[in-house]
Write a structure and sequence with these properties.
Elements (H helix, E strand, L loop, with lengths): L17 H10 L5 H9 L3 H7 L11 E9 L2 E8 L5 H14 L4 E4 L3 E9 L4 H10 L1 H11 L1 H5 L3 E10 L7 E9 L6 H19 L2 E8 L6 E9 H4 L6 H17 L1 H21 L4 H12 L9 E6 L2 E9 L7 H5 L1 H10 L4 H24 L4 H15 L4 H14 L4 H21 L1
Antiparallel strand pairs: 1-2, 3-8, 4-6, 4-7, 5-6, 8-10, 9-10
Helix pairs in contact: 4-15, 6-8, 10-11, 10-15, 11-12, 11-15, 16-17, 17-18
The structure holds (R)-mevalonate.
The site of (R)-mevalonate has 10 residues, from helix 11 and helix 15.
Length: 436
């Protein structure tokens, strides 16, 4: 995405009317009128019917745009699909703080996914393992015959291992593990196809009985690392000095490291941003969630995926997270909104997308911790929360803002109150009509 001298800054974006924001998509982000229209319409029923079985409708979510992201010296506008208020605002706010300190720095490993083949009924596991390893070059070559395009792009089978599981409730078994560089796809289809193709040969080599042949979602070889630094001065507000805010965030970090109940919520704050980009770009967010939580528990104790510490008058955050995402194939290519979201991001590879998602996760983590360590999250949340309560209570969209404002003023944000206010409003409208 080419950007002007403001980079990815869009001062006052949140104050604009919806139509004005849409105009910016055309004027600043270079989307065509049709693409802007498509973002508003989303997936058609006919398209949905081609994606899954038994389609009876289309489920929509809001798509927001978070400006301000400076990642590895490049500017990004980040599309986020999410129903939860405050996440988009939090991401933009944190990205603005971070850009003052030079932006996010990220790095990623090669996009290597793991696949597993379970082999049962082996009387001599050591010998089966030995025979498998003797055939490894042939099996890897066989795996690479299947997806020549991935291989041409520098990916393909990287390694094959065999692990003996000496005992289980059904006795011993052998696990064959394929390490496969999937390049720009998420990789589940590519890996599963290879595993199913290799299974009969592995059966023949080992003399065992093949059971499972499936991708592992613990994508521990496909990692993204993101870092950022925010100066004390950027953190201060009317009530708290920047140093106090930073110290309270580090105290929140300390709790997350000691207590898995807090660590789970800490990680949820990271995944708020990561999942929202995953959804917007048509990626499988369940796979990201499975990978993130399994990775967080890899030491045997569930841990926060990010760390926050103080260094030289700065709050420094870093995140390490598995990132099984793609920019080609599946819904990333088939879903019209996902295609446009990827165009807005302007990323060139799945690895780059993962790096942006890592930065976004660190941003939503920072926004949540900053709010929690100071005024709490409810204050900023209330107006948006009131809107969704009003909408959920059956308020027509044109009246939502008014009913929500009254509930916020009264400090009484409940569906029952929204219904009462709506009744009053309708009554007042009828009376005005009758008087005219
Ligand atoms: C809410 O969606 C996410 C938070 O609970 C994250 C956190 O507590 O760090 C605010």
């Amino acid at each position: 995405m080419s950007v002007d001298e403001n980079g990815s800054r869009l001062p006052g974006f949140f104050r604009l009317m919806l139509e004005e924001r849409q105009r910016i998509l055309e004027e600043k982000l270079g989307l065509s009128r049709e693409e802007v229209q498509r973002l508003a319409e989303g997936l058609s029923l006919e398209e949905a019917d081609l994606l899954i079985e038994n389609v009876v409708g289309v489920f929509s979510l809001p798509l927001g745009l978070a400006p301000n992201f400076l990642i590895d010296g490049q500017e990004f506008f980040v599309p986020l699909a999410i129903e939860e208020p405050s996440v988009v605002a939090g991401a933009s706010h944190a990205a603005k703080l971070v850009r003052e300190g030079g932006g996010f720095q990220t790095e990623a490993t090669s996009p290597v996914m793991l696949g597993q083949i379970q082999v049962l009924g082996l009387p001599d596991l050591e010998q089966a393992k030995f025979r498998l390893m003797a055939n490894k070059p042939r099996l890897l070559a066989e795996a690479n015959r299947l997806h020549p395009t991935i291989v041409t792009r520098g990916g393909g089978a990287v390694d094959l291992e065999a692990k003996i599981i000496p005992s289980s409730q059904i006795g011993p078994m052998l696990l064959v593990i394929l390490h496969y560089d999937v390049r720009d796809s998420m990789g589940a289809n590519a890996v599963n196809t290879v595993l199913e193709h290799l299974a009969p040969q592995i059966e023949e080599i080992t003399g065992g009985e093949i059971n499972l042949r499936i991708l592992s979602n613990l994508a521990e070889e496909r990692l993204v690392r993101a870092k950022c630094s925010v100066s004390f001065s950027a953190l201060e507000n009317r009530e708290w000095s920047g140093e106090e805010v930073a110290r309270r965030i580090v105290a929140a970090q300390a709790l997350a490291e000691e207590d898995p109940y807090r660590a789970a919520t800490h990680n949820k704050g990271i995944l708020n941003g990561v999942d929202a980009v995953a959804l917007a770009t048509g990626n499988d967010w369940r796979s990201i969630e499975a990978a993130a939580h399994a990775y967080a528990a890899r030491s045997g104790r569930y841990q926060p995926l990010s760390t926050w510490e103080i260094s030289d008058q700065n709050l420094v955050g870093s995140l390490e997270i598995p990132m099984p995402v793609g920019t080609v194939g599946g819904a990333t290519s088939a879903h019209p909104t996902a295609r446009i979201a990827l165009k807005i991001l302007g990323v060139n590879s799945s690895t780059e997308l993962g790096q942006v998602m890592g930065a976004v996760g660190l941003a939503t983590n920072l926004a949540a911790l900053k709010a929690l360590a100071t005024e709490g999250i409810q204050k900023g949340h209330m107006r948006l929360h009131a809107r969704s309560v009003a909408l959920g209570a059956g308020t027509p969209p044109k009246l939502v803002e008014e009913i929500a404002s009254r509930m916020v003023l009264e400090g009484n944000i409940r569906p029952s109150r929204a219904k009462e206010l709506l009744k009053e409003q309708k009554f007042a409208e009828r009376r005005t009509k009758n008087n005219n």
